[in-house]
Design a protein that fits this description.
207 residues; mainly alpha; rod-shaped
Length: 207
């Protein structure tokens, strides 16, 4: 190949490059893409409502009094519910202590007094008086909230009516079961303003 042919090839390559460069310059002159003031995308966030700036959640619904729930409770349903507790407790007279104490006769029993069971320090500190139906309901709802630091790991029974069923079952496991349901029904039958003067709580009423 002589120098003349080589020059023609080089000229063609250079001409092509110049043509592409010219087209690029012409395109930039015609089209002007907008450049944002700030890079990225802006995401619209809804403004907080006026006032204190935060939406307040609805207050937690308060459970009905245990006396009202016991009037509708059922010991058979409570027997079913007690299956949630048998991994840690026994319920028959003379039953052994397990992870938790034996619960025979627990209603009306002084807290923290089951022989042979090693209660946690937090439980011993909180243990005052005898177990009432209301206190058992509050404890079983959320043990760790009722007695912070307790070694009881049970998550609790949130439904109040189920706790009332369980309390009736616990009451049946006793040498001297209390007539909790009859007392609850009598209390529910009293109308406001027609009650007799209080003469102290009855032995079988939650205190």
């Amino acid at each position: 190949m002589d120098s003349f042919e080589l020059n023609k090839i080089m000229g063609a390559v250079l001409g092509t490059c110049l043509g592409v460069l010219s087209l690029n310059i012409a395109a930039n002159a015609i089209f002007h893409p907008a450049t944002p003031e700030k890079p990225g995308y802006e995401i619209a966030v809804p403004e907080k409502p006026a006032g204190d700036g935060e939406q307040k959640s609805a207050p937690a619904q308060k459970d009905p009094p245990i006396a009202e729930l016991l009037a509708k409770a059922d010991v058979k349903r409570g027997e079913v519910s007690h299956n949630k507790c048998i991994a840690c407790h026994t319920f028959d007279k003379g039953g052994r202590n397990m992870v938790g104490p034996n619960l025979y006769g627990v209603i009306g029993r002084e807290k923290g007094t089951e022989p042979g069971f090693n209660y946690s320090a937090a439980f011993k500190k909180a243990a005052k008086g005898a177990w009432t139906a209301q206190e058992i309901s509050d404890f079983v709802k959320n043990p760790r909230a009722y007695i912070p630091g307790t070694s009881m790991t049970f998550a609790g029974i949130n439904r109040a009516s189920e706790r009332a069923d369980l309390i009736l079952f616990l009451n049946s496991k006793s040498d001297n079961p209390k007539d909790l349901k009859a007392a609850a029904q009598a209390q529910a039958g009293d109308k406001p303003g027609e009650q007799a003067p209080a003469q102290g709580p009855a032995d079988n009423q939650p205190k």
